[in-house]
Amino acid sequence: MSVLLIEAFYGGSHKQLMDLLQEELQEDCVLCTLPAKKWHWKARTAALYFMQTVPASTNYRFMPAHKLTHLQKVIGVKRNGDAYQSEGLPGQQKTRALGVLMKNGNVQSESGLCEAQPGLCTTQHEGLPSPGTAPARLNEAEASESTTSCQEEDKQQLTFNLCNVLSGQDYQQRPLHIAWPHRWEHDKDPETFFKVLLKLKEKDLPFQVSVLGEAFTEIPDIFSEAKKALGSSVLHWGYLPSKDDYFQALCMADVVISTAKHEFFGVAMVEAVYCGCYPLCPKALVYPEIFPAEYLYSTPEQLFKRLQNFCKRPDIVRKHLYKGETAGFAWAALGGKFRSLLAAEPREDL
Question: Domains along the chain?
Fold first, then answer.
């Protein structure tokens, strides 16, 4: 089985899933990616980009027979058994990585694409070269940006140990520790999150906050403003490139908050629950499908009231045992389902 994975936003949880599939499926696997920047532009233009960049190949197209017949005519290949082979190549070498035709171990120069050796996976971290004008403009726009882990002044915090930060404090006596582990972009609604925290601070309620997640070139102004206003309540500020440090931060937190306006699943929230955090999520998007009702809020005012109570009684969340189900999200439960889906026979309704 040949598998083509396409990811237009290769970063964060998106990258995590793609890398996991590559590692666990262990098939003739091809991964085509674009950098994790400009989410809204990717949603609008990535399909056009990949349509022009990824050469058609029946080695991995999940299609019914009538569509495969049409594709044969389009790309000019003939079928030999279960594999599609290009005509005229010495030894009838199979087409591999992204359908690029290889001859004597070299990629045809006009393709402009990289070669994947048999049995290996090809990952293009910085996006694929574009043969078309529209995708070229897309790539040029992205090339002008550079991804940053976090703001310059926070680089010294990238390797840290929360156990050291909290040393000397009795666990039950320390202030409520709130985590926000999301991308530093407007679709995660940091404005609402910080507005609620500043309201807690105005009422002199004790809490500490760790603002995690990755920042990019364009960081919303609210982050620098909120860091200054929150002052000593900030325990950690910035992206942690080490997964061990990141999970340690979540393990030391009491509550994890989402204020997202856009969320397909919410890996960061589920990870935090695995690490023992009490989740508070909007009663919207995908969250009601994952979290029981007691972990959902409908308005910022409701979020504030929940956190206000937790600040006064942090022992409430520290003694709490999560009432939802998380085992179904583990690879042990999902691995077989992914394999079955990718190996399924194509249907006429696709």
Answer: 2-145+332-343 (no CATH), 152-319 (3.40.50.2000)
Helix (H) or strand (E) holding 216: none
State the pTM of this model: 0.62
- Write down the number of H helices and E strands in the chain: 13, 13
Asked whether residue 251 carries a pLDDT value surpassing 50, the answer given is yes
- Per the structure block, which two tokens stand in for 88? 């005229």
With CA atoms as reference, report the closest residue to 259 among 298, 203, 233, 219: 298
**Helical packing angle, 267-274 and 12-25, nearest 10°:** 70
Q: What's the rounded Cα separation, in Å, for the pair 271 and 265?
A: 12
Dist CA 275 CA 19 (whole Å): 22
Mark out the alpha helices in 181-299 (DSSP H runs): 190-202, 222-230, 243-252, 267-274, 287-290
CA distance 302 to 64: 50
List, for residues 168-179, the tens digit of each pLDDT value.
Answer: 456 667 999 999
Token couple for 41: 């532009």
